[in-house]
Amino acid sequence: MINKKTKKDLFTLICVIIGALIMAVNIKTFVRAGNLFPGGFTGLTVMIQRIADEYFNVSVSYSFINITLNAVPAIIGYKTIGKRFTIYSCLMILLTGIFVDFLPSTPLTYDPLLIAVFGGIFNGVGIAFALRGKASSGGTDFIAVYLSDKLHAPAWNYVLGLNAVMLVVAGLLFDWNQALYSIIFQFVSTQVVGALHVRYKKVTVHIITSKPDDLSEKLMIYTHHGITRFEGHGCYSNQPRTLLYTVISTEELKEVIRFVHLVDDKAFINVMKTNSLEGRFYQEPIN
């Protein structure tokens, strides 16, 4: 019987491998075909490769540059975010580099707008896979995750601003068209990550139940979130009913609904999007 920790590590490993493969294929299929800079340390790596190639006529390994650049953020991530998160993020950096160095170049299109849009989508999906497994693609992702944990809100748009600065430099050194299309690429990627990564999004859950004592006690232990209880009367059933009110993260929602129905299979659940939240809120640690 596989224990919970082993399952968790296996799930993370699968997410990291899939994410690394998607990002590598994206680089060899879209990014290189459009001479784009995908943002973050991946984009900085590509930019350094192009500087070495065009200005010094030297071919430099993607893996070598990418691992070197990520060394400092990895150390910071290890100290501020956590050991497990950093180790798996480093594994993704390593795997992405290996895949990029060994996969053949297979461009699907040379249309810069198609490359910017679909390349951005693939890039965002690759990052989202890593984040789903509680890892990252490294570089500026360490910054985004750190800020998101501190702010309890998505910080990917802040990283988009940092990437825009790098892309301006790319425009000055190479070609403004490529740099501007790269900004589109990065914007699309950021929006995809924001849509798929729901860790910092909140929902309000209203549960009407006839088993309030049992459900509230078990649910608080299961989620570590506080619950407020309101007593009422069911107009249709003409029976006493209790409303349990709680706020959880969106990524917890499916499991919470499943758990509630295990305790009370007749519970009525209403879920509402939470746009803003003030006060204490338990966020499950990344590690």
TrEMBL record:
Coiled coil: none annotated. It is found in: Cell membrane. GO terms for cellular component: plasma membrane. Its main location: membrane. Residues 225-277 form the DUF2179 domain. It comes from the Bacteria. It holds the Pfam family DUF2179. This is Uncharacterized membrane-anchored protein YitT (DUF2179 family). Keywords: Cell membrane, Membrane, Transmembrane, Transmembrane helix. The chain crosses the membrane at residues 57-78, 85-104, 110-131, 155-174, 180-198. It is a multi-pass membrane protein.
